[in-house]
Write a structure and sequence with these properties.
Elements: H1 6-16, E1 22-26, H2 32-43, H3 50-58, E2 63-70, E3 75-83, E4 88-95, H4 104-119, E5 122-128, H5 132-140, E6 144-153, E7 158-166
Length: about 170
């Protein structure tokens, strides 16, 4: 995939074992009930609201949101990008617990990074300081830690690690 070194891809293959078959497509408002259920599963109490997602989906000029669906059509992941010419932000990535470790998050991230590389100079993200698995994935994709935000995730008051990646063209 664009923006992904073969070494990073091979490392992910070794770590996750077999891949689940997924289809990525644009997120729609009809996906929001499933996305919000996953928000609760994965990120409570620091979840986004339906209104936040509706607003994001409305901003098609600078937003790109995807969902991952399995062979049965069930939503198993989602991700979002906010992109401006100066910089892009990975806004969110979530994969249901039953599909974690199977490459779904990596595939969502790689797709967003390919899009970001066409729009922006640098890609930024925040990740929970206690989420070492996600931080490892981001490092394998060329992100480096550039700072921390104390109490960033609310209401849990969890710190965020801020990471950055230069665009690959």
């Amino acid at each position: 995939m664009h923006g992904q070194s073969s070494g990073a891809h091979e490392a992910d293959e070794r770590q996750r074992g077999s891949l689940v078959s997924v289809i990525l497509r644009d997120m729609t408002r009809a996906d929001l009930p499933a996305v919000l259920a996953m928000e609760e599963e994965l990120f409570a109490p620091d979840t986004w609201t339906a209104a936040m997602y509706r607003d994001e989906l409305h901003r098609t000029d600078s937003r790109h949101y995807l969902v991952a669906v399995d062979e049965a059509g069930a939503l198993i992941g989602y991700a979002g990008l906010i992109a401006y010419p100066e910089e892009a932000h990975i806004a969110t990535i979530g994969v249901t617990a039953t599909a974690q470790g199977q490459g779904v998050g990596a595939r969502l991230l790689d797709t967003l990074l390919a899009e970001a590389d066409t729009r922006s100079q640098v890609v930024l993200l925040e990740v929970r300081a206690d989420n070492e698995v996600a931080q490892g994935l981001y490092r394998r994709r060329g992100f480096t830690e550039i700072g921390r935000r104390r109490g960033y995730y609310q209401p849990s008051n969890t710190d965020a690690v801020v990471m950055s990646r230069e665009v690959r063209r």
